[in-house]
Design brief:
The structure holds 2 protein chains of 2 kinds. Chain A is mainly α. Chain A has 7 helices and no strands. Chain A is about 60% helix and about 0% strand. The chains are: A mainly alpha, B mainly alpha.
């Protein structure tokens, strides 16, 4: 059997996954080939890190308790954190604080936007519009001319000069 | 009359579905130690272990009618146990690395071999190191190593438990062992073989 074929079977050989007809030629090759034997030893060393752990026995009455709960309709919705876990309560408080902060931020944003778009005078409304003033002054001038009493010695050239405005200039 | 402990799993499942509470208790008792042993490799917290195992059997009970009778009950329960443990850790944000990096993409495996643990080391110390490294592996690697190396499950049983092909099992075990070796040598280079 060639080394390449053996190398692909070493893991299965160590895991007892090979049939006897497969394992026998591998075994023979390993006896004869130092390189493949090294490979097998390396894989054996890796497996030696997986030592058996102490068995953990089920608590007293576990089976009867589970059976009782099962028939009572408990569907096994696991609470992720046991009551003894001190991290659980603090985490929930932090979650609540984060949620309230997010809500407060949203409210402030809405208020700010509301204030921005509420009924303020528009720019156009605030801008000084001199056209009405000019019109008013011209009207005033006309009225003055119409109402002006003609005094002796005054000629038509002595009419009141209109008030010059910035807009008129 | 046959006592319940002598009755096979399939029959106990049938009796449970017919409302026999004692039959389900026997099923649980028969498999509880193995499930406790399995779950212990996922977490060292005994309270968590008990919660997960309890939840496993409660879930098994609710799904009993869908149990495929051509398979074995214990591989079916094993699968529920693995998924229950991983679901819990996911909810707690305790996922190990999820993505499995393609070794061909990442590149070279470590050239050094891994020595055996020091003969002076206690088994508990070795187990601590091993579980510490396992906890950092991608979940699919960790699970196959637990099932193969600790639970001594055959490749076919692992395939049945995980619902994958036997070829995938072989491939994952090969890659998982390489990754395990790489991680141990990163953390504990003193265990690298000197060529």
């Amino acid at each position: 059997m060639k080394c390449e074929a053996v190398r692909s079977l070493v893991a299965g050989y160590l895991d007892d996954e090979l049939s006897e007809s497969q394992a026998s030629p591998v075994r023979q090759h390993l006896l004869d080939c130092g390189e493949c034997r090294k490979l097998m030893q390396a894989q054996t060393a890796e497996k030696s890190w997986f030592v058996p752990t102490e068995p953990m026995a089920a608590p007293e009455g576990f089976a009867a308790r589970v059976s009782r709960r099962a028939f009572a309709g408990d569907k096994g919705l696991l609470t992720p954190v046991s009551p003894q876990d001190t991290g659980g309560g603090e985490f929930r408080i932090l979650q609540f604080a984060i949620q309230m902060t997010a809500v407060a931020a949203a409210v402030l944003l809405i208020l700010a936007l509301g204030m921005k778009f509420s009924a303020h005078p528009e720019g156009a409304e605030l801008r000084a519009d001199s056209s009405d003033l000019r019109e008013a002054l011209e009207t005033m001038d006309r009225l003055n001319r119409e109402e002006r009493l003609e005094l002796p010695g005054e000629d038509s050239a002595g009419e009141v000069q209109p008030i010059a405005t910035e807009a008129g200039k | 009359m046959e006592s319940l402990p002598e009755i096979e799993d399939q029959e106990l499942v049938t009796r449970t579905l017919n409302g026999d509470r004692e039959a389900f208790g026997v099923l649980v008792e028969r498999h509880q130690d193995r499930i406790f042993g399995l779950v212990r490799h996922y977490t060292r917290n005994p309270v968590e272990v008990e919660d997960i195992v309890q939840d496993t059997f409660l879930k098994a009970f609710t799904r009993l009618s869908s149990f495929q009778r051509q398979g074995s009950f214990y591989t079916w329960v094993y699968r529920i146990a693995v998924n229950t443990a991983l679901d819990l850790f996911k909810r707690q944000g305790r996922n190990p690395v999820q993505t499995v990096e393609d070794p061909e993409v990442i590149g070279r495996p470590p050239s050094r071999g891994l020595m055996r643990p020091d003969a002076q080391m206690q088994e508990r110390e070795i187990a601590e190191i091993t579980h510490e490294v396992l906890a950092e592996l991608p979940e699919i690697f960790r699970t196959v190593l637990i099932l193969r190396e600790f639970e001594q499950q055959a490749y076919q049983d692992i395939a049945d438990i995980l619902g994958i092909s036997i070829g995938t099992v072989e491939s994952r075990i090969f890659r998982a062992r390489a990754k395990f070796k790489e991680q141990i040598l990163q953390r504990y280079p003193e265990y690298g073989q000197v060529d």
